[in-house]
Amino acid sequence: MTADRYGGAMVCTECGKMTVDAEKQDSGMPEEACAEESAVLSAAEDRRDRMAMRLLAWYRENRRVLPWREDPTPYHVWLSEIMLQQTRVEAVKEYYARFLAALPDISSLAAAPEDQVMKLWEGLGYYSRARNLQKAAKVVCTEYQGRMPETAAALRKLPGIGAYTAAAIASIACGEPEPALDGNLMRVFSRVTRYEGEICQRASKEAAERFYRGLFMAAPAGPGQSSNLYGSLNQALMDLGATICLPNGAPACGACPLSACCTIHLQAPGREAALPIMPARKPRKVQRYTVFLLQDADRIALRRRPPKGLLAGLFEFPMTEGHLTEREALQYVRKLGFSPIRIEDAGAARHIFTHVEWDMVGYAVRVDELAKIRYDSNGGGGDIILAAADEIRGRYPIPSAFRRYREWILNRTGGWQ
Ligand code: SF4
After folding, report:
1. What is the structure's pLDDT at 292?
2. I need a surface site. Which of 109, 341, 381, 404 has the fewest CB within 10 A?
3. What region does 86 belong to: left with phi over 0, alpha with psi -120 to 50, or beta?
4. Would you identify the CATH topology of the domain 3-65+178-274?
């Protein structure tokens, strides 16, 4: 038998059985407390039965009411899970409703113009998610007659669907016993088992998967239980991680259904937030830009970004590297072959991506006739689009990195003048 070590307990990698490792019980706690703790942990063999039962009972009473849970078809679960990556639940609700109203099924998503999909995604960020969503919808239509495959293994072959999303769809929409290992499940796993390895390592994910597969197998099926046991367990764990076993600050152990069988809580109460062990963060690279709101009487210049790289294929206000002074900005606009009439400070903005941060300053530059602009962005630019206010609102997808400037221009009294 090989075993994974979880703080005070060992889990067999073959059968998933959990046993107590006496060495690891030296938590500096008084002897009586340790004895009491041992008593709890010595019942470890049925621990996951109890965890599963408690989770399911808690979920029946406390589940979050979310629009995508009302009718959990594979398309609905898939769309919501992709939107929820990197985005808060509250922010996703509106996007989800709008997206489904416009593209209610997989075939309508597959057939939509890409700019429509991007516009529906505008503001959610990580736009490759939307592009992959549409690519996968096309594959489902051509290779699966418009029906999503129902196993995690088949789902993972679709563009943009990784292990987590495949497991979420397969379990929630199709009832497969697949643990959906997102940040919530990894955090709960590390605390419940007192797992002290760095949580982002592959070995940690493998250990968590073995642990949860054991938990799923131990779950009580039958009368009174959910008709979709595994979907309910995944969603219970997601909800527990999102509302009780919180990532920042102290988890609400007093309200937790797992508190009587959670290793870190029993062995080191008050120190639960020390887990999971996270990798050291690399500092983000800061890039400085000057953004131009080039406008004539009724239009403004937009440019399509290159087809590859950050914010690929979306629209931006023309920009150049560095922070230009007002005088430099005017020189730059003249160099583009244009005579500016007026320049105005449009303020500073900052946008944080995963690995990079944009530190921007902006200028609104009034020109007499925008069509004369010959824009040269030192080789990095695409076509210039001349857009009216309504088109900026409703047609062209402009990423939230430019929200400050988009709002600035749209909020001016009577539009731009
Ligand atoms: S008892 Fe506390 S640390 Fe343990 S799972 Fe519950 S909330 Fe998380």
Report:
1. 94
2. 341
3. left
4. Endonuclease Iii, domain 2 (1.10.1670)
